[in-house]
Design brief:
The complex is a heterodimer of chains A (117) and B (117).
Chain A: E1 5-7, E2 10-13, E3 19-24, E4 31-38, E5 42-50, E6 53-56, E7 65-71, E8 74-79, E9 88-95, E10 107-108, E11 112-116
Chain B: E1 3-5, E2 10-14, E3 19-21, E4 24-26, E5 32-39, E6 46-52, E7 60-61, E8 64-69, E9 74-79, E10 88-96, E11 106-107, E12 111-116
Parallel strand pairs in B: 2-12
Antiparallel strand pairs in B: 1-4, 3-9, 5-6, 5-10, 7-8, 8-9, 10-11, 10-12
The chains are: A mainly beta (117), B mainly beta (117).
Chain lengths: 117, 117
């Protein structure tokens, strides 16, 4: 299996521009998580989907952030408009259904390093 | 809400020696998982070891073992025979297993481990 795939790996953009991050979870996994990593706040959950339905989006900073999961094999995280404080590494992770899998592990993608100038 | 605290921002160890990384957590739940993740400079998040709260036996994975003290809410990681490849940021993480539907990981701020040759 190719693991969790994220694109792009690096993104540099200017303030005010729209940014779209993409994630392909591991086939068969039905839970998907978006995390953000910054020096100040560490790793924190942005949003969690189960069976393509958002379960917890309390970590989404504000209306500028939106996430979708149109099908089981694809998710996007969009920032519009982007701001310098959004600069961070964004991770996507997937896992089997936590309610049915005993040894549940979240598998992380390589992350997208976003720089907003 | 659950919190995870790693009180050692940085640690160092000599190659072939043993080092212990500390982690404490706060929760009112009785059923949960604890994890240690490793993040090398490549920034890939790699699961090192997991512990189920209802198991009293401490988990071990080759040179990695944990000391799980449920009453004290402590979960330390011991790395034996340290190798240069162990140098990384190590994150302690908590995940509920108490039903409901939110299975996000809550992370500590991390401990940067340096291995000296």
């Amino acid at each position: 299996d190719a693991g969790v795939i994220q694109s792009p790996r690096h993104e540099v953009t200017e303030m005010g521009q729209e940014v779209t991050l993409r994630c392909k979870p591991i086939s068969g996994h039905n839970s998907l998580f978006w995390y953000r990593q910054t020096m100040m706040r560490g790793l924190e959950l942005l949003i969690y989907f189960n069976n393509n339905v958002p379960i917890d989006d309390s970590g989404m900073p504000e209306d500028r952030f939106s996430a979708k999961m149109p099908n089981a094999s694809f998710s996007t995280l969009k920032i519009q408009p982007s701001e310098p404080r959004d600069s961070a590494v964004y991770f996507c992770a997937s896992s089997p259904d936590p309610r049915t899998e005993l040894y549940n592990e979240q598998f992380f993608g390589p992350g997208t390093r976003l720089t907003v100038l | 809400a659950q919190t995870v605290t790693q009180s050692q921002p940085e640690m160092s160890v000599q190659e072939a020696e043993t080092v212990t990384l500390s982690c404490t957590y706060d929760t009112s739940e009785s059923d949960y998982y604890l994890f240690w993740y490793k993040q090398p400079p490549s920034r890939q998040m790699i699961l090192v070891i997991r512990q189920e709260a209802y198991k009293q036996q401490n988990a071990t994975e080759n040179r990695f073992s944990v000391n799980f003290q449920k009453a004290a809410k402590s979960f330390s990681l011991k790395i034996s025979d340290s190798q240069l490849g162990d140098a990384a940021m190590y994150f302690c993480a908590y995940r509920t297993n108490s039903g409901g539907s939110n299975y996000k990981l809550t992370f500590g701020k991390g401990t940067l481990l340096t291995v000296n040759p």
